Amino acid sequence: MQLETLLANIAQHSNLVDSYGATHLPIYNTATFDQKRQFPNNKNYDYSRTDNPTRNALEDIFAIAEEGAGCVCVNTGVSALALLFDTVLKTDDVILVERDCYGGTYRLLNILLEKNDIQTCYADFTNVTEVESVLQQNKIKLILCESPTNPSLKIVDLQAIAELSKKYNSLFAVDNSMATFAAQKPLVLGADFSLFSATKFISGHGSVVAGAIVAKSEYWAERLNYFSNANGRAQSPFDVFLVSLGLPTLVYRMKTQEQSAIQLSEFLNSLPEVLEVKFPGLPSHPQYELAKRQMEIIPAVLTITLSSAEKAEQLIRNTKLFGEKVSFGTSDSRLEIPSKMSHATYSDEDLKKIGLTHATVRISVGLENVNDLIADIQQALKVETIKCV
Ligand SMILES: Cc1ncc(COP(=O)(O)O)c(C=O)c1O
């Protein structure tokens, strides 16, 4: 079954048992389940922290979509990362992480070091030799990366990293928040875990914070479930419902946003005030070929460098359609200066290593008409001349 078909009717395609034939996922907002009033052939429910029919249905759909053995839905994307760490790591383990990662991931890794002596080695995952040399020199328990990375939008060859993880006996997890399973399936490329913030493209309307993690193997799926229950990370049925509302349109939204992002990035590239446009959908992107091969849709996030921090502020202040907001992938376009918002937890030294300055702006392209977005940026920068290209 194609993904669009699966997502068009999740009540039908999930494991939900519903004798009324509900068209959409029913919300079982109940803490407990009466053992004496359950149909004998159904899965037995007990307590909603452990299992809940609404949540289980979404977990089922995510496991099918990511082609994994099982999924756990949790209350935020950060919680999915924390659940991964709870489940696989012990004191003194070492993790290898792509240097360009979400600021909340970086903060969590610093907490792991402080509280559990779990060290993180950082590397540039677009350089497979560099990754292998870290694996040769350290016993790495877990490898973690995003692709595209956030905010530098590098593309990691997930299959190559998965092969290295097997060679060196490490686990490999991919944060699939930006690409989503509509664009790429890390487990099919050899990863052990695919996790994501459903706050972004997956739910798509900025109405909920949510996360999920899918494991390739039954063993890890069961362990994730165990730790989610033990640490109380379960997503509430109402939040599951909000996430589910975005699913039928996910593929169509992402494809429309991709087309707008291509047009917007070409426009931005022609402006003298814009020194650099990073977008994996532009042929000038260093991993353009890999991006096209690895992802069916290029997610609509661009990172641009303006000629000065003042110009970046001018863009932020004067645009009317773009909110100054963190996060990405929603129906509304938004922009932010990562060094001040989503990546403010980075030390100055680490910001420098990933090439972020106050003149760097991340843009998430929404579902507005792209001509309105272009006109908005034009008026914000008071663009009169267009550079010859
Ligand atoms: C790549 C990535 N992973 C994880 C997260 C965390 O997700 P949440 O905000 O839902 O906790 C974010 C949030 O921006 C993100 O960009």
TrEMBL record:
**Residue numbers of N6-(pyridoxal phosphate)lysine PTMs:** K200
Q: Does the keyword Lyase apply?
A: yes
As one GO molecular function, the record gives:
cysteine-S-conjugate beta-lyase activity
- Give the similarity note: Belongs to the trans-sulfuration enzymes family.
Listed EC numbers? 4.4.1.13
Please name the taxonomic classification of the source. Bacteria, Pseudomonadati, Bacteroidota, Flavobacteriia, Flavobacteriales
Cofactor(s) in the UniProt record: pyridoxal 5'-phosphate
Name of this chain's protein: cysteine-S-conjugate beta-lyase
PROSITE patterns recorded: CYS_MET_METAB_PP (PS00868)
Q: Per UniProt, which keywords does this protein have?
A: Amino-acid biosynthesis, Lyase, Methionine biosynthesis, Pyridoxal phosphate
EC top class named in words: lyase
Q: Name one GO biological process term.
A: methionine biosynthetic process
Q: Which GO terms describe its cellular component?
A: cytoplasm
Which species is the source of this protein?
A: Flavobacterium urocaniciphilum
In Pfam terms, one family for this protein is Cys_Met_Meta_PP
